[in-house]
UniProtKB/TrEMBL annotation:
This is Protein C10. The lineage of its organism: Eukaryota, Metazoa, Chordata, Craniata, Vertebrata. GO terms for cellular component: cytoplasm. The keyword Cytoplasm applies. It comes from Gorilla gorilla gorilla (Western lowland gorilla). The gene is C10H12orf57. InterPro entries: P_C10. Residues 75-96 are annotated as: Disordered. Belongs to the UPF0456 family. Pfam families: P_C10. Keywords: Cytoplasm. Its main location: cytoplasm. Signal peptide: none annotated. It is found in: Cytoplasm. It comes from the Eukaryota.
Length: 96
């Protein structure tokens, strides 16, 4: 279902690099590193449990960063951000 919220502003390639760097940095933050370690411990190297415990924590950490750039805090926002950055949409800009 489409969100009624506004579309995020287009990001230049440089801005997309900044967003990605911030997401990576967020995973290095001590409180997030602890959250990820706890999730991995709960998963016990079981792939199904990884999806159950680790993926939601990783998604939350990513969403905390990308919401500052206008992407929604739901699964669609993370998917949209990843799709736009990964595809190089706009050949020099990333956005709608």
């Amino acid at each position: 279902m489409a969100s009624a919220s506004t579309q995020p502003a287009a990001l230049s390639a440089e801005q997309a690099k900044v967003v990605l760097a911030e997401v990576i940095q967020a995973f290095s933050a001590p409180e997030n590193a602890v959250r990820m370690d706890e999730a991995r411990d709960n998963a016990c190297n079981d792939m199904g449990k990884m999806l159950q415990f680790v993926l939601p924590v990783a998604t939350q950490i990513q969403q905390e960063v990308i919401k500052a750039y206008g992407f929604s805090c739901d699964g669609e926002g993370g998917s949209d951000a990843g799709r736009r950055v990964g595809s190089g949409e706009g050949a020099g800009s990333v956005g709608p």
